[in-house]
Design brief:
- The protein has one domain.
- It has seven helices and no strands.
- The chain has helices spanning 2-14, 18-95, 104-113, 126-134, 143-177, 195-201, 209-257.
- The chain is rod-shaped, with a radius of gyration of 35 Å.
- It starts with a helix and ends with a helix.
């Protein structure tokens, strides 16, 4: 093709046809420009297709992260609903404790149940962190997704602050029980529980009614903090489901629009 163009140019020059040569030269330049524009357009199209495929992979990964959060929320809700029952029962036992009834073992066991460590939920943010660190957050073209991710991340900051209160309330409950119970007689985790022996040996360090009432008050406070934490967990479960729905809708649209 290049040889053909060269021969045409040389022929026009030899025939001294300047106007035709200039017209030809302009046409040749125009063809080159058009070729460049087509190449750039194809390159841009390929780049956009690559970015859309990468966006689709990120969205799929964000969905998986949100599903992990949803599972954690639902598990934490079950655990903390049970914790509220334990704390309410402990409080009631403390307020109604009678030294002469000999219900020390039941009080001890209920108090011991309340010491189980809280089930905390943390943000599964590996994909979001990667998007931020690589600058690929720009690949998420749907503004509704970007807004949903920002709000979802903000929610976890609130949840994290509440978990600090939760942890402090547990420590406060433990401190209240230390002067009351003799933990030497606690049931051993790695041994078969001998209920009869436990009931015979377990005893209180102190039989001060005021200390037991104080333990009941701490149990009530912890129960109220747990209830609010439960409220936040249920909010989180709802937010996770909404985020999954938003992401899945975008994923469907992206798949549909791709050639």
């Amino acid at each position: 093709m290049i040889k053909l163009f060269r021969k045409i140019r040389q022929k026009l020059i030899k025939e001294n046809k300047l106007s035709k040569y200039l017209l030809y030269a302009f046409g040749e330049i125009l063809l080159v420009v058009i070729g460049i524009l087509i190449a750039l357009s194809l390159n841009n199209w390929n780049q956009k297709q690559t970015e859309r495929k990468l966006e689709s992979r990120y969205i799929f990964s964000l969905i998986e992260d949100a599903k992990t959060d949803l599972s954690n929320f639902n598990n934490a809700i079950i655990v903390n609903e049970e914790r509220v029952k334990i704390l309410d029962t402990l409080a009631s036992m403390c307020f109604n404790y009678d030294m002469e009834d000999g219900n020390t073992p039941e009080l001890f066991i209920q108090n011991y149940k309340a010491y189980a460590h809280p089930f905390f939920v943390t943000h599964t943010d590996r994909t979001l962190a990667q998007l931020k660190n690589t600058g690929n957050l720009r690949l998420i073209t749907d503004k509704s997704i970007a807004d949903a991710l920002i709000k979802y991340e903000g929610y976890f900051e609130k949840l994290s602050n509440q978990q600090v209160w939760y942890e402090n309330a547990l420590n406060s409950l433990i401190e209240s029980g230390i002067p009351i119970f003799n933990f030497k007689y606690r049931p051993k985790i790695d041994q078969e529980f001998d209920k009869e022996l436990f009931q015979k040996t377990v005893k209180l360090n102190a039989t001060n009614k005021e200390l037991i009432i104080e333990l009941g008050n701490r149990a009530v406070m912890y129960s109220e903090i747990t209830r609010y934490y439960l409220f936040l967990l249920k909010q989180g479960s709802k937010r996770a489901r909404e985020l999954i729905k938003t992401l899945e809708n975008n994923s469907t649209n992206t798949t549909t629009t791709q050639p």
